[in-house]
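Form 7-S
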Amino acid sequence: MVNPEEYGLEIAKAAAEGAAKESVNKLSTIIGSIFPFFGLKKEAITTYISEIQNSNLAPEAKMLSIANAKKTYKHMKNQQKIAQIAQENAKDGTDFSAQSKVDDEWLERFMDSAKFVSDENMQLIWGKILAREFEEPSSTSPSVIRILSEVTPKYAKAFQILCSLAVEFELLCDFNDDKDFISYVVLPSKHDYLNDYGLTFTTLNELQLLGLIQYEPNTGYKIDFTGECMPNKIRLTYDNKRTSVAKLPDKSLPIGCVRITDAGYSIKKFITTEPIMEHFDAVTAFLKDSNIEFSEI
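Output:
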């Protein structure tokens, strides 16, 4: 049976080491802003554990109380890590002080949810989003916090793969020589080649329930070209591969069965993507099946 006093001493030692590291850590400004009583709470945990050890509680009760203290300490370590990532990724001169214009309620919700994030890849996303909010206060919807708090590492990875399917479209109109560049995730209606990457029907449905995407496997989505500028040339680029559209049958371009939501785009900005080898050929085959004609570049 684990000795609760030894267990408590180990936690107290870890807390003391953490406090020593914090004293030489340049996070004092951001921690003071985001979590004003961070240091005091760690000291309180150490004191609390000491009091538990010296109490008249039964050994099992002592162990349970110390375990709860350890959980609290772990939550604060998660918050500290995300705060550190935010500082490391923010633009020079970003104001992390109490005078920043970040909404207090937004920040409280964010940090309360952040305490449960222990996966390193997820912490990186959380930290970058926090940095962006301090750079541009009120730029991140509260819905992003809700979605992130519900996304498991498995579905975060699936969303990362989905974001890797973004194709760049270069549009050129008859009326001028200006080029317009847009980027859309293109998921062909036939996407069995992505099963090995975890993008199954079930996964896509779950991403939709989370609020990251809209998924329409039957009719799909299109880019509609309306107004005076109908592109006379559209170039598609993906992973340094290019092709050019010669004709659009109905002044629209199919982009497949997925459309990323606004909240999804807010998160997509902070996701690192890698090209999928088979994707370019799958996209061109999908467009040809949609009666899109191609020309040589």
